[in-house]
């Protein structure tokens, strides 16, 4: 598993984590290239369905970054995110993917170094866990952005 | 409204082990409000089942549809175009009524994804509580609007039972004693004398006995 390079999706709150990522960049801090950052207006936008989708489309690990507890720009978004992450962890455990592949972290916009550290820590964790069981049986398609085979059809309300 | 909750994922997965392609049908009614079977939960269940099966090396194809309601034939009919020959099973995320309606209408293996719990209401976001036992003949006018059939652990009609302590039920100290609530309420209304009347046994023939109950409104029937 030595050359396993995990794919990790980081859902980042615009007001803290995203700014912290910016700061990490300005400070020229190094962090693993495994992280795909997705900006959210608030970690309160965290959606169990979307977290699962990240795994289904090939992520080996996913984390949500929200503001420090008590400091959410929208007051309670990060607490809500925390509960949804917990719920998604439970589902991942039930599926057998393992809830430990999903995590919620809190940091402030000033914590550029912490952003890099979290990226480092989490990448290490996922490297230790190895590829997601979904990627073990079925290596993810080589091309970027292709994801899973799209076997689900979504239809809205019955017209 | 009807309150339901998700069955464990493993149980649902076990019911459709042999299926290759399934139709996952949500309901836009009660179960959307209690966050058990709406469009979002349908998506989550479908994704979870796909991943579980992919992990087991036995991929599953899913089609997701959320009907406005599963307890009306018009909406259930709208599912027809999705019930193609290659669908091996239908999973319904409605209450038991929806599951039965789908099973009646379509010649497929239809399985419930939820456990239907009770007729209740939202106490706070994310908390639902039973409020009516669907007894068929409402007596709330005698009890200040508090239902002894369902909110008293013993369903007694001439309460309290004698085990009530500090306003709590002896069966579970978390539960307010329904008869204490009834007493307090009637007191505020100045109608305590209602409690002096002995309630005769309730006519339970209007409740569960005698097969499925039916409500008919002749004035709105079409035929
Ligand atoms: S008396 Fe019967 S109908 Fe009325 S709330 Fe209680 S169970 Fe429901
Ligand atoms: S304590 Fe009150 S609610 Fe509990 S069984 Fe007795 S009368 Fe009913």
UniProtKB/TrEMBL annotation, chain A:
Domain of life: Bacteria
Family annotation (InterPro entries): MvhD/FlpD
Molecular function as annotated in GO: iron-sulfur cluster binding; metal ion binding; oxidoreductase activity
Stretch list, region Disordered: 126-159
One Pfam family named in its UniProt record: FlpD
Domain F420-non-reducing hydrogenase iron-sulfur subunit D: 8-130
Record carries keyword Cytoplasm: no
UniProt keyword terms in alphabetical order: Iron, Iron-sulfur, Metal-binding, Oxidoreductase
Biased composition (Polar residues): 150-159
Keyword Iron-sulfur: yes
Protein name per Swiss-Prot or TrEMBL: Methyl-viologen-reducing hydrogenase, delta subunit
Protein's organism: Neomoorella humiferrea
From TrEMBL, chain B:
Pfam families noted in UniProt: DUF5981 (PF12225)
Protein known as: Methylene-tetrahydrofolate reductase C-terminal-like domain-containing protein
The Methylene-tetrahydrofolate reductase C-terminal-like domain, residue ranges: 112-205
PANTHER family: 5,10-METHYLENETETRAHYDROFOLATE REDUCTASE, METHYLENE-TETRAHYDROFOLATE REDUCTASE C-TERMINAL DOMAIN-CONTAINING PROTEIN
Taxonomic placement: Bacteria, Bacillati, Bacillota, Clostridia, Neomoorellales
